[in-house]
Write a structure and sequence with these properties.
heterodimer, A: 103 residues, mainly beta, 7-stranded antiparallel β-sheet, B: 382 residues, alpha+beta, Alpha-Beta Plaits, DNA polymerase, domain 1, Dna Ligase, domain 1, 12 strands, 40% helix, 23% strand
């Protein structure tokens, strides 16, 4: 016999209300250019350009994906040595974004 | 044999893997962005050592430990990681089931290299996700789950015929999944203090004192498991969802949207389990009304979110206050039966087809990819 089933896809956080007092620290959501390797179905971002400045990625600390309707978004938390950023790649419009600075 | 994998402080560990600065620090993951007005949905082991645990308000957590690090929860990371771990476990060639977002069970049948498999799973999880898991192995899922908690974090424990009674004697009965505070009081009244006390009781004794629940407990504890075997009484008694709002609201449209959302969530789970329900229970909590709770049984069982919502509104009409301030609310469906009859009338059939299509889309593209427009109102706090 099994323990009762569980649905891992439950995404009701999408309905959580935005409150005016919600702090948005580090949120950027800006378009960036990114240099990345696409190898064996995986993406390895190497560097990105934000505000005309190039940031070399020294380490990808984590990566995950999220499906939003037709779009599949790949997220990466990347370290440039000094700072940590969250960047994302949209596989539908093939664009990269700098989501936030991770503090 | 069943192997139970329980991820260690799952959400907090993922956040620590993402941000190495947080490693080794007391960290809490809040269910919302607002640091001081939310609840702890996960705590790192460093925070747990200071008495912080899930369910606590963040304000209390910061009072107890002012140097806590805080990260708001981001479900997408946790769901993705959970799915990836599930896929990784499937590669071992055994049947795997989800017990929760951070717990998995594998039927490893008559496999003899138990330690080796468990160690390899831990190694693979750490190599791929930089997080740890604790593993319990036993003859059934209930004992395997209990075993996974014995050597946390990053531990392995196997209940064998030889060590089972000795180990159970050291574990309080309330540590067993399914023994809540109320049941524990009843058990203590019966002289049952440890898991061994419970294990040693006969099926008749447990049934006489705890009813069908007690008999089910006996069956679960003593089962020699394989996933194919079915328990006598394995279906849930009720399915419910609740939510605490960031602050109290008296806007009817907002409150109704939340009742609708919770009704839809409950209905979706009913449909996933092929259940229909005839009893709807709603509870509301607010500064003026305190706690309001009422239920009603209807002639026709349903698993349609809109119908459950309409039934909730009928129950809420009894409230007396026209637009009360609401801070928390919940919808639960009970009296569950299997949905074995097809819809009779044309309208019902059309509705059923619509629900099937919605479920199909959400199953393919992720929950809430398509949803009733009314639930949009939950997203903006009035």
């Amino acid at each position: 016999m099994k323990q009762s089933g569980f649905n891992p896809h439950s995404r009701w956080d999408r309905h959580i209300p935005e409150t005016s007092d919600t702090p948005q620290t580090g949120q950027l959501d800006e378009k960036i250019d990114c240099f990345a390797w696409f190898r064996a179905g995986k993406i390895y971002p190497q560097a990105f350009v934000w505000n005309h400045k190039e940031y070399k990625i020294t380490n990808i600390t984590y990566n995950w994906q999220e499906r939003r309707g037709r779009e599949l978004i790949s997220f990466f938390s990347v370290s440039t040595g000094a700072d940590l950023y969250q960047i994302s790649f949209n596989n539908t419009n093939l664009s990269w974004r700098l989501d936030k600075i991770i503090e | 044999m069943i192997l139970h994998i329980d991820m260690d402080a799952f959400f907090a560990s993922i956040e620590q893997a993402i941000n190495p600065r947080l490693k080794g620090k007391p960290l809490i993951v809040g269910s919302r962005d607002n640091k001081m007005h939310t609840v702890v949905c996960a705590a790192s082991y460093e925070a747990k050592a200071q008495g912080i645990d899930s369910g606590m308000s963040t304000a209390d957590a910061f009072k107890a430990c002012p140097n806590l690090e805080f990260v708001p929860a981001d479900q997408s990371k946790y769901i993705w990681t959970s799915e990836q771990i599930f896929e990784l476990l499937k590669k071992y060639g055994f049947e795997v089931v989800y017990a929760s977002i951070d717990e998995f069970q594998i039927d490893i049948r008559d496999e003899t290299e138990l330690q080796a498999i468990a160690r390899d799973i831990q190694k693979q999880i750490y190599a791929n996700f930089n997080i740890t898991a604790s593993i319990g192995i036993a003859k059934n899922w209930l004992l395997a789950k209990l075993a996974s908690k014995i050597n946390k974090p990053n531990g392995i424990f196997i209940f064998t015929e030889e060590n089972l009674e000795g180990a159970l004697a050291k574990i309080p009965a309330k540590k067993l999944c399914g023994v809540g505070e109320k049941t524990n009081v009843v058990l203590e009244g019966l002289g049952i203090k440890t898991c061994l006390d419970l294990y040693k009781k006969s099926a008749l004794f447990l049934e006489q004192n705890l009813g069908a629940y007690g008999l089910n407990f006996y069956l679960l504890l003593h089962a020699k498991d394989s996933f194919e075997l079915e328990a006598g009484e394995d279906k849930p008694k009720s399915i419910g969802h609740s939510y605490t709002l960031p602050r109290a609201s008296e806007t009817p449209g907002f409150i109704k949207a939340w009742v609708r959302l919770l009704s839809e969530m409950v209905a979706e789970r009913l449909r996933q389990n092929n259940f229909v329900s005839s009893t709807v229970h709603i509870w509301l909590n607010g500064p003026e009304i305190g706690g309001f709770s009422a239920q009603k049984t209807f002639g026709q069982a349903t698993n349609d979110g809109y119908e459950i919502y309409q039934r909730c509104l009928k129950i809420m009409a009894k409230l007396g206050v026209k637009t009360p301030k609401i801070r928390a609310l919940g919808v639960t469906c009970s009296n569950l039966t299997l949905a074995s009859y097809p819809a009779l009338f044309k309208e019902q059939q059309k509705r059923q087809k619509l629900l099937e299509a919605i479920d199909k889309i959400n199953s393919r593209y992720g929950d809430s990819s398509i949803f009733p427009a009314q639930t949009m109102f939950t997203r903006r706090m009035p």
